[in-house]
Amino acid sequence: MLAITKYADRLLSDIDRLDWPKGIKEMQKNWIGRSEGINFKNKVKGMEITFENYNSVPQTYHAETFAAIAPEHSLVYELVK
After folding, report:
1. Same domain, 27 and 48
2. For residue 46, what are the domain limits?
3. Do 27 and 60 lie in a common domain?
4. pLDDT per 10-residue tile (average), the chain, 81 residues
5. What is residue 22's predicted lDDT score, i.e. its pLDDT?
6. Which alpha helices (DSSP H) does 1-81 contain, by range?
7. What is the pLDDT of residue 59?
């Protein structure tokens, strides 16, 4: 399995050197999907449970009103109790 995220910066910086059509290069850049942002912790209201969340637009952090977790997240069982 490839850990492409380890090479995202290099892939993105070198892609313009390729002799590929502009559209293909743009698709590759989107597929690599490098983004910058912040990880922060959320506390579940009324419980002593926290989970980490990512936001690609850090200045909107204080405007968030909710966060969703995947149904297969390990906290789901604890939250349902």
Report:
1. no
2. 38-80
3. no
4. 75 91 91 80 90 84 84 90 82
5. 94
6. 8-14, 22-32, 76-80
7. 82
